[in-house]
């Protein structure tokens, strides 16, 4: 099996050759017909139609944790408005209840789907959707990410407060749980003063260390960094220094790393906002210098409950969303500062959170045209209900130039249990850009 271990994929510049069509000669006298090389023959109507056939170029995998279903779509045309459903995967049939996230191997041939209630991580061969591993990684398996060179997978397991390591041999399709870190029992974590929380999400820095946010509550937010060779905690930051409890994203080229911190607006038992505590709502992102392990920047996300984020494939913009307020910002990765705002990711924008869409995770199209953003359902399976309760379960398609919502795809619109969370985009041809961390 030929594989690449780089996360950067190079475009094949498909050039279209010019076609010359000869005109008619005088009819009288009729000239002798010239022999025409086969390569110069005028294309037939059928050949021209075939040349105009739209090639999708990528698949969108969207996990509905409310119905234990992974939906696989592709663009139907180049408008960004129509999408064809290619396949569905019933993760529940394999014990994979509440499929939460998706992450690919560097060649996009395999996808890891952790299932929180199912207490396991499912590995599929992406091309034919075949299950190749069913790993009991633990209760609350929240995110499973392939490491650099695809030699292992680290799994953030909330219910056990563990980071689980899976050794990977893609050549032979072998996956084995080999170790785990009990995070709160770790000496480095304890010395940092971290006494609560569980690993939530992670990605990898340029040296291969996995960087894990802790949570899920904002008060549990902190950061733990794991050395990949020794598989032990290398560094830990307490809540007072880095109250990060959600997203993780490495810079595409530099030794810097982005993290989000979010806290929904406090509510009482009936779901009503506690007005005197409204200032406790949080939406922030932090920038960590991973060469020196120093925080070099933090800024507001201009909304509440900062959550997922993603780079445009050219590496020039980092998008950050706020789950509760259904809005977000664009960050310049050169200055790490906010340079633009995004008004809405979901079409429901009412002032009342119960009547407003709740965006969660996103992933960009490899051609850089769109961002695909999951929208939560009216009966969310995870997250604070005040922030995570949505209206239109599905995923929104956002134009990266205008920031407008192009369309919303809803696989199961009339089912209140539908609750999309994780999403991943898998190229089926070559592109130029950065679209799968670690870069």
Automatic annotation (TrEMBL):
Residues 25-51 have a biased composition (Acidic residues). It comes from the Archaea. Residues 20-51, 409-439 are annotated as: Disordered. InterPro entries: Host-pathogen_enzymatic-act, N2O_reductase_N, WD40/YVTN_repeat-like_dom_sf. This is Probable secreted glycoprotein. It comes from Natronomonas pharaonis (strain ATCC 35678 / DSM 2160 / CIP 103997 / JCM 8858 / NBRC 14720 / NCIMB 2260 / Gabara) (Halobacterium pharaonis). The lineage of its organism: Archaea, Methanobacteriati, Methanobacteriota, Stenosarchaea group, Halobacteria.
């Amino acid at each position: 099996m030929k594989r690449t271990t780089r996360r950067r994929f190079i475009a094949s510049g498909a050039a279209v050759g010019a076609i010359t069509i000869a005109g008619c000669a005088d009819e009288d006298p009729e000239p002798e017909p010239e022999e025409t090389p086969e390569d110069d023959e005028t294309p037939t109507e059928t050949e021209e139609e075939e040349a105009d056939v739209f090639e999708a170029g990528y698949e969108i995998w969207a996990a509905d944790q409310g119905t234990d279903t992974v939906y696989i779509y592709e663009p139907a045309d180049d408008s960004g408005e129509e999408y064809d459903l290619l396949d569905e995967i019933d993760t529940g049939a394999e014990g994979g209840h509440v499929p939460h996230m998706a992450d690919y191997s560097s060649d996009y041939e395999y996808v890891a789907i952790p299932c929180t209630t199912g207490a396991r991580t499912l590995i599929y061969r992406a091309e034919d959707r075949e299950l190749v591993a069913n790993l009991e990684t633990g209760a609350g398996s929240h995110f499973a990410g392939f490491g650099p060179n695809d030699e292992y997978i680290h799994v953030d397991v909330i219910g056990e407060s563990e980071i689980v390591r899976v050794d990977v041999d893609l050549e032979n399709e072998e996956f084995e749980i080999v170790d785990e870190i009990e995070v709160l029992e770790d000496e480095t974590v304890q010395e940092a003063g971290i006494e609560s929380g569980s690993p939530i999400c992670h990605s990898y820095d340029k040296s291969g260390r996995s960087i894990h946010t802790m949570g899920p509550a904002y008060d549990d937010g902190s950061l733990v960094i794991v050395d990949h060779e020794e598989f032990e905690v290398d560094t830990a930051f307490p809540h007072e220094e880095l109250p990060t409890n959600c997203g993780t994203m490495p810079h595409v080229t530099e030794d810097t790393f982005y993290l989000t911190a979010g806290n929904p607006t406090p509510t009482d038992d009936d779901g009503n906002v506690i007005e005197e505590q409204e200032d406790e709502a949080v939406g922030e992102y932090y920038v960590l210098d991973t060469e020196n392990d120093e925080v070099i920047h933090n800024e507001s996300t201009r909304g509440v409950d900062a959550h997922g984020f993603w780079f445009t494939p050219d590496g020039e913009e980092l998008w950050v969303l706020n789950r509760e307020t259904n809005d977000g910002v664009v960050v310049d990765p050169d200055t790490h500062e906010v340079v633009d705002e995004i008004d809405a990711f979901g079409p429901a924008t009412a002032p009342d959170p119960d009547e407003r869409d709740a965006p969660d995770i996103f992933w960009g199209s490899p051609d850089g045209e769109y961002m695909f953003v999951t929208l939560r359902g009216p009966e969310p399976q995870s997250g604070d209900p005040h922030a995570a309760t949505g209206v239109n379960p599905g995923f929104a398609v956002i134009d990266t130039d205008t920031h407008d919502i192009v369309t919303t795809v809803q696989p199961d619109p009339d089912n209140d249990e539908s609750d999309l969370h994780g999403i991943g985009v898998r190229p089926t041809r070559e592109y130029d850009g950065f679209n799968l961390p670690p870069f």
